[in-house]
C-alpha cells in the first residue's frame, strides 16, 4: 500500500515581526502572529477570519523547531473552518530550510464536513515575512 498525495490548496501567509523569548526552560520561544493569509485550491478557497492566528514556535538547543499553529479560515462561500497543525523545521542549516506540517481541520458546515475526516500534509517555504505552503490531502 502506498501513500497518495492529493493537492488540496496553496496557502500564502503574511507574518508579523516575531516576538522572541530566548533561553526559556523549553528553549527559544518564537511567537509569530499572522497578519493575513489566503487559501487557493480547487476544493478549498478562502482567507483568514479574524485576527486570532499565530505560530507558537519552540526552537531547541539542537536547532529543531517545533511549530504549533492555529487559525480560522472563512471560505469564499461563507463557511468557517478551524485549522491547526504542528510541524518541524530544522533551523541548524539556516533560515532557508523548509517547514513540514500536518494540518487538521474542524468545521460544522456540511459543505466542508469532508475536511473533518482527512489528514493533510504541507511543505512551506519562508521568504522574508511571506510563508507559502503547498497543502496535500493524504490518502
Structure notes:
- With 139 residues, the protein is mainly beta.
- It has no helices and eleven strands.
- The chain has strands at 5-15, 19-24, 27-40, 46-48, 54-59, 64-75, 80-90, 99-101, 104-106, 120-127, 130-138.
- Strands 1, 2, 3, 4, 5, 6, 7, 8, 9, 10 and 11 form an eleven-stranded antiparallel beta sheet that branches.
- It is globular, with a radius of gyration of 15 Å.
- The model has no long low-confidence stretch (mean pLDDT 96).
Structure described in brief:
The protein is mostly beta strands and about 140 residues long. It is built from no helices and eleven strands.
Descriptive tags:
about 140 residues; mainly beta; 11-stranded antiparallel sheet; about 0% helix
Helix-residue proportion = under 10%
Order of helices and strands: EEEEEEEEEEE
Low-confidence stretches: none
Secondary structure tally, helices: 0
Mean pLDDT: 96
**Biggest β-sheet: count, sense, barrel?**
11 strands, antiparallel
Distance between the termini: 10 Å
Strand content: over 45%
Strand tally? 11
Shape: globular
Q: Output the structural class.
A: mainly beta
Taking Cα atoms only, what radius of gyration do you get, to the nearest Å?
15 Å
Which helices and strands appear, and what pairs or packs with what?
Blueprint: E1 5-15, E2 19-24, E3 27-40, E4 46-48, E5 54-59, E6 64-75, E7 80-90, E8 99-101, E9 104-106, E10 120-127, E11 130-138
Antiparallel strand pairs: 1-3, 1-11, 2-3, 3-4, 3-5, 4-6, 5-6, 6-7, 7-8, 7-9, 8-10, 10-11
Amino acid at each position: 500500500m502506498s501513500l497518495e498525495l492529493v493537492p488540496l490548496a496553496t496557502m500564502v501567509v503574511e507574518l508579523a515581526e516575531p516576538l522572541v523569548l530566548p533561553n526559556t526552560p523549553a528553549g527559544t520561544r518564537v511567537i509569530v502572529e499572522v497578519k493575513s493569509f489566503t487559501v487557493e485550491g480547487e476544493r478549498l478557497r478562502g482567507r483568514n477570519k479574524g485576527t486570532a492566528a499565530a505560530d507558537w514556535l519552540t526552537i531547541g538547543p539542537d536547532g529543531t523547531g517545533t511549530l504549533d499553529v492555529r487559525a480560522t479560515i472563512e471560505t469564499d462561500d461563507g463557511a468557517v473552518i478551524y485549522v491547526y497543525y504542528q510541524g518541524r523545521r530544522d533551523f541548524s542549516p539556516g533560515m532557508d530550510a523548509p517547514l513540514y506540517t500536518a494540518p487538521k481541520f474542524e468545521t460544522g458546515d456540511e459543505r466542508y464536513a469532508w475536511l473533518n475526516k482527512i489528514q493533510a500534509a504541507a511543505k512551506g517555504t519562508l521568504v522574508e515575512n511571506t510563508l507559502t505552503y503547498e497543502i496535500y490531502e493524504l490518502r
